[in-house]
Amino acid sequence: MSTSSFDSMVLVDPARHSFVASAQGSEFPLQNLPYGVFMPADGPARVGVAIGAQVLDLAAAAERGWIRSVPRSVLACASLNALARLGRAAWSALRTELVALLAQGSALAGHADAAVLLHDASAVRMALPFDIPGYTDFYASEHHAFNCGVLFRGPENALPPNWKHMPIGYNGRASSVVVSGTPLHRPNGQLPGADGVPSWGPTRALDFELEIGAFIGADTALGHSVAVDEAWSMVFGLVLLNDWSARDVQRWEYVPLGPFQGKAFGTSISPWVVPLDALEPFKVALDPQQPAVLPYLQEREHVSYDVALQVDLQTAEGEQACISTSNLRHLYWSFAQQVAHHTGSGCNLRVGDLLGTGTISGPEPTQLGCLLEMTKAGQQPLQVGAQQRRYLEDGDRVTFRGTASSAQFTIGFGSLTGQILPAR
Ligand code: MN
């Protein structure tokens, strides 16, 4: 396997450290450098980079001449869209500059400006990283698709006949994507009744879905299909994604046009966008696909990343437990195949579009990515300390984490957390 899917990759020597002391051993060492949008206590939102327990203010760094590869105007923005739109060569140039700027021995290390440019992460508020024109959610994990299929259709017909031929997806709702920490009210909806007559009320089957989201970093033209081997170069970076789901609403509405209100009430993402360059050392080959996929989905490299995922549930009563450990490697369809399929019809993608993997479940019972699977659609309650859960209760808080580790360093996504408030 080649070491890079595209030419301009910026890999950071594993032995190299940042002068920011808290970076060593943290999820945000010099080898990560994820981008986000933050609000300092005393100013408007702007672009930042996480380094250890600090956030580097890129707008201020450009203002003072520490960053020269991209214009200050794209960094003094309340979203990453303008930066992403500059293209992959600019992303690489900026990452190269940031590595030099934050490494031990850099001119900034002993300079008075360091105190101005670096904020304590605990003292800033994070915003949504992108203005999101569109959100599409896929169904790319075979274990998840199989487990759900068994629950709804039995083991013989678990995977729909199209499943191994294309990455199935649906057009989700971009307007309700929120950043980590934003609470969500339990949604109201049409609930199926035993007699075939629905009722209206708060969902009784509120679930989370453990996913990773990819942010698209380039516009495509309407009518243009992206070649699968070129699709990776359009991905700006990845975030944790929780596709909250009301299973009773979903079950009643999804035939024949797919999910709608059961998903549309909210989707949460983590604030830091991890660049693919940072994930490159953790690239893993996926199993060959059988049956062979159609030519437009055939890749030179069929890959994902070895990112350990974890779900923690804190109940309203204060019990806390890790209820799942999965991994981004448990995908059948790669991000590149998702992009190629999405644009295959000529549908255009735009900078800031968000593509969710779908729930990522592994082969083991401890690796399931949603309560629907863990509780077998609510039939087998999950024990969380002294409490039981079939689905989420008001006051419950769900937290995702994602980390990739080598012998020398770990990079991570930070955390994605959201609490359920009572229905309105
Ligand atoms: Mn989903």
Mean pLDDT: 96
What's the helix count? 11
Give start-end ranges of low-pLDDT stretches.
Answer: 1-5
Globally, the shape reads globular
What radius of gyration results from the CA coordinates?
21 Å
The first-to-last residue Cα distance is 53 Å
How much of the residues is beta strand, in percent?
Answer: 25-35%
User: What are the distinct ligands in this entry?
Assistant: manganese (II) ion
| Helix percentage range | 10-25%
Compute the number of strand runs: 26
Summarize the biggest pleated sheet. Answer: 8 strands, mixed
In short:
This protein has 11 helices and 26 strands. It has helices at residues 58-63, 81-85, 88-102, 113-117, 142-153, 228-231, 247-253, 261-264, 276-279, 335-344, 371-374; strands at residues 35-39, 46-51, 54-57, 118-120, 125-127, 135-138, 169-171, 177-179, 184-185, 188-191, 199-202, 206-207, 210-216, 235-242, 245-246, 267-269, 274-275, 283-285, 303-305, 308-314, 320-327, 354-356, 382-384, 387-389, 397-405, 410-421.
Report on the structure:
By secondary structure, the chain is of the alpha+beta class. 18% of the residues lie in helices and 27% in strands. The chain has eleven helices and 26 strands. The strands form seven sheets. Strands 6, 7, 8, 13, 14, 16, 17 and 22 form an eight-stranded mixed β-sheet that branches. The radius of gyration is 21 Å and the shape is globular. The chain binds manganese (II) ion. Residues 137, 209, 211, 243, 356, 358-359 line the site of manganese (II) ion.
